[in-house]
Amino acid sequence: MLVCFLCGLEAACAQGKAPGLCRLLRFNRPEWHWLLAGLVGSAGVGLIMPAFALSLSNVIAVLFSPDYGYMTREAHARAAHHTCCECSVRTSGCVSQLKRRAACVLECDPA
After folding, report:
1. Are the C-beta atoms of residues 62 and 71 closer than 8 Å to each other?
2. Which of 37, 48, 36, 33 has its CA nearest to residue 90?
3. What is residue 1's predicted lDDT score, i.e. its pLDDT?
4. In this structure, are residues 28 and 8 in contact, taking their beta carbons and an 8 Å threshold?
5. How far apart are CA 64 and CA 71, in angstroms?
6. Is 2's pLDDT higher than 50?
7. What are the sequence ranges of the domains in the chain?
8. Is 19 exposed, middle or buried (0-12, 13-18, 19+ CB in 10 A)?
9. Residues near 75 by beta carbon (within 8 Å), at least 6 away in sequence
10. Which of 22, 59, 86, 96 is the most exposed place for a label (fewest CB within 10 A)?
């Protein structure tokens, strides 16, 4: 497939015209599901830092509250929230590592 793509690209360049974007996207049609998975994954990873910063700023605001009862209730709630977020990030990281290793084993297995 890659060789055919390069031959088509060289033929188009030899004719003096550049291939169109639609034509290039058609060559990548079998990989579109990977493109969408990468897009969703990148968006998820890109949202982790801003979400953590927002949550951490809320924790700092709670810790400077003059009401001790409010501060302890909110601190416990924020700690539970951070624990859930950390567990979900770690779980998704473990799942992605397991998928990667399984794919490598299946790809590298000569049998």
Report:
1. yes
2. 48
3. 44
4. no
5. 8
6. no
7. 2-108
8. middle
9. 59, 62, 63
10. 22
